[in-house]
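Quick one: structure tokens for this chain, please?
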Amino acid sequence: MTLSADLAAAADRHPDHEAVVAGGARLTYAEFQAAVDACAGGLVKAGVQRGDRVAVVMPNSVEAAVAIYGALRAGAAFVPLPHGARPDRLKRLVAHSAAAAVLTELATLGAGEPPDPPGESELAAIIYTSGSTGEPKGAAFAHRQMTFVAGSIVSYLGLEGDDRILCPLPLSHTYGLYHLIMAVRQGATLVLEPGLAFPGRLVAALERERITFLPGVPTTWEMLTSLPGLAQRPLPHLRTLTNAGAALTVEQVARVRATFGGARLFSMYGQTECKRVCYLPPEELDARPGSVGKAIPGTEIWLAPDGELMVSGPHVMEGYWNDPEATAAKVTVTADGRRVLHTGDLFRADADDFLYFVSRKDDIIKSRGEKVAPPEVERALLLAPGVSEAAVFGVPDRLLGQAVVAHLAGPDPDPTALRRHCAQHLEPHMIPRDFHVHPALPRTHSGKIDRAALKASRCEPSRVPSSVTPS
């Protein structure tokens, strides 16, 4: 099965059903398919050939959805790039992917004849991700990998053709992108919003569009649950919530469930290199706080001796585009042909094999001869008065080996109170030496804290309290 075939099947099954809604524009599946064919014909006339790459640089819009499937219909692979990225970064990514065309808007280029649909083993997409070095790498996927994982996610979420998905997440990121792919696969309706800048718009869309399905990252839920009166507004259609990108704290889960009481919340974990790894069913939220669950259907996961999570299944990427060395470090192939993804993330498992994230393998801090997992310190800091965001790193220290340093945001956290709080909630070797306070921590396009920017000191704190050295 290919992504193009999914769209053709949806258009055949129910041509008059709404496919994509954004910015006042609405396309039925028949109209969506016609627009995709026209886009593909224009690309072919412009010289795009089967196997080429087509970069898509657009905000969330009907046009972006058409461009993605238009590239596929033309026999090419799409390369979704962040619309708000710096020009120099976009230029580097376009050059790296050797894109034959760049779509920034849709124009009538004239008719051309698209080739026969590509096979399931042909390249479908290159999705860029930033590694621990900050250098982007392009994860390459064939059609079969993307259709498999979309089907797996659809099965455990129970997504159906009558669902209406509200997606404020960028289509240039896998979390947002796969809501388009899953909607097309099921013949559901995707309602796109440009982002999280105006949470009131999201609430209006929830009501106006009779939304049944809402994905988010922690930033999404923080914004929405802080809106006064939202918990009292009836949202009778909303039935499914999903969270990925970063784990929700126990307190955040409680606020989300209190605000959207009638909807089920799925906690999930994944990586760009395979899209999704595991999920926690909503009925397990209370019994297993902090868990990201078990493997998605059709895949296998296990912990290496050092706790690193390993993943095997049909969804593991082909490799990093034009980077065999990085690919070899991330993906290995077993004697029986299984592709194994080394996530680089450390987990622990409970007695029933439900997984709990510990830390990035390369983020573990070794201080005073002890190992410190940054997420454990961050969870403690988020319980402190006045702290709404926290990111913890290790920095070289002549005496300690590495010192623990915390970057915080919130309504003016008090250093003295932080010292007291850390002494009550953390072991001595885990207490940060320094606290750097920012108006807000920088975020990536996918809504995660931009740790690379903090580590590189590209984000200067507005105020740095005097160092706190644990006694």
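The mean pLDDT is 90.
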